Amino acid sequence: MTSRSVTLDDVAQLAGVSYQTVSRVLNRSEQVSARTRERVEAAMLQLNYVPNRVAQQLAGKATRTLGLATSDLALMAPAQIASAIQQRAAGAGYHLVIAMDSGNDAAATVNELLAQRVDGLLINLPLEADEAQQIQLLCGSKPVLFLDVEPQAAVAQCQYPNESGARAAVEHLVALGHRQIGLLNGPLRSVSARQRENAWCQALADHQLTPHCSLRGDWSAQSGYQALLAQLPDDLPQALLVANDQMALGAMRALHQYGVTIPGEISVIGYDDTAESAWYQPPLTTVRQDLQFLGAQSVERMLARLQGAEG
């Protein structure tokens, strides 16, 4: 006796509803009453029914799958954004496929997702305007939303204004009496890094201050550690703005290694307000970005675009 896969017809028969009703339940349609939905879901559970996404893809149907192209998930901020996206997508009945770009090849990363026939794509990669437009063309008619792109790019975006956060950090440090304020920033190819550096420079100029030092990392804790080691023990600023919390962790370790006290001899302020920053020693003062909100909001906007395309 050969076993066969459970079908929608099997679920419909057990639940006492039509095939179309089962399909509506799977697609989270609001046209199904709560009582009917519960009956269908109970039948699915009893039969151990699993939706066949491959069959949906081959039939050219919506797969209720979103794709996320993201930076290295070893970094705290992208990882927390991805987690928020996954949670909100799941809450809306969508599966999330993640492709991580570790070689600065956004097109190849996006092609991985297109091969999965996702319904829409979220792009959390640092892209120039022309790069984003090329990705938009690559995706054809599929809805695409960019989370880290030049604001002037003529593409759909969902991101935080980096300038206001960096400016607020400088204002905070100036209010503490600091006049020599350095910056430990991410790579120049990063849109976010350039925006934060521009705001740092402008905020200093507004107070008739000149940049004390501009150090560079790659967003990792190790790069923050190495950047500070190269600066120590001479020519330290009174305060240091670090463009993400992870590099701040490395910078603080280098300062501790040289016996430089925080905040006694130098103030350090991070950026992103990642969950881990509260566990640094001393706890890190950091510019708050609601990464959970950003991730959830990007899914909300994508769902709105998908519903518009379906309507």
Automatic annotation (TrEMBL):
It comes from the Bacteria. Residues 6-60 form the HTH lacI-type domain. The keyword Transferase does not apply. One of its GO terms (molecular function) is transcription cis-regulatory region binding. Gene3D superfamilies: 3.40.50.2300, lambda repressor-like DNA-binding domains. InterPro entries: HTH_LacI, LacI/GalR-like_sensor, Lambda_DNA-bd_dom_sf, Peripla_BP_I. SUPFAM superfamilies: lambda repressor-like DNA-binding domains, Periplasmic binding protein-like I. Keywords: DNA-binding, Transcription, Transcription regulation. The keyword Transcription regulation applies. PANTHER family: LACI-RELATED TRANSCRIPTIONAL REPRESSOR (PTHR30146), LACTOSE OPERON REPRESSOR (PTHR30146:SF153). NCBIfam families: PRK09526.1. This is LacI family DNA-binding transcriptional regulator. It comes from Enterobacter agglomerans.
